[in-house]
Fold o-succinylbenzoate synthase.
Amino acid sequence: MTEPAQRDPEPIESTRPIPRENGRPGPAPDGEIPALDLEQLLEKAIVVDLPLTVRFRGVTRREAVLLPGPRGWGEFAPFLEYDDAEAAAWWRACLEAAYLGFPAPLRSEIPVNATVPAVAPERVPAVLGGYGEDIVAVKVKVAERGQGVEEDEARVAAVRAALPEARIRVDANQGWTVDQAVSALRRLSRYDLEYAEQPAPGVDGLYAVREALHRDGVTVPIAADESVRKAEDPLAVARAGAADLIVVKVAPLGGVRRALSVVEQAGLPAVVSSALDTSVGLSAGVALAASLPELPYACGLGTGALLARDVTEAPLKPEHGKLPVRDYGPGSLEVRGLVVDDARRTWWLDRVRRVHALLEPGPGSGPEPGQQPLEWR
């Protein structure tokens, strides 16, 4: 992607909720998004383009739409390859943050893992250095296209050498076949893996990997990610007994409340993770993690360390392996030098218009006479 021309606006003041619950935005009284005039919303939207410190998920930059609302800032940042139907959940999550706020927290801090992309082993110490001291857990990306298990093992070994006491989990992003996953996890199990995230595609693939490892006496728990957030039925993996835990992300599941419902119904331990969000999006993940009755694993919410620039004056990055739980919705955003050019802004706002039309109560950019508020179940 070529460098976009930059527009440097004055910092935007967001409206804050009054009153707050435990210092955080409380839900709207009726628990519903009010009918919205979309075009008025989009006039206030900010579209940003952030550089990353390292290539991640095949990208070196991250674009996002930031939306101010009466409860704070919302973020809409589905990856570019996602179609409108998949991106609609991300818009729903953005509206929830801006117009409903988040549930009251049950804890004051969230343990988080460091994330190591599919880099060469000699780069591992530098990546870990971006997460500060007292790293308690590390997620290592594996099964990168064009790489083999030898590269994966070298990366995992480098993490183990750098952090002998940390918990290590690997994430294949469903990049292995069942046979490849079983073979690779047998090999990587010597590094005392905490779990393997989405080692193969689909619920059936996860079930097959989990059963094969159990038969072989290989103790590597299986976590479902894509089989939850990309599935028509996010609970199918739990019903099938295909995973030991689930990974939940706010935006792909349509907001904090919907993610909480998935965790409750699944009945499995949950790890809250990010989708390479800005600090605005990460604050929604923190709200979800803070609202879960139990939080047995460190969460994947430390990815702010992968951003070379962020949109807040105080970026949401881990300190001593944890994130504090507080209202991270900024009173103003620091976006100078990050705002996209007119062409990219138009592209993103057109995308918002399309996905907004997919949400109930129906198509249209503004409330029609007698239109009902958007339901939030």
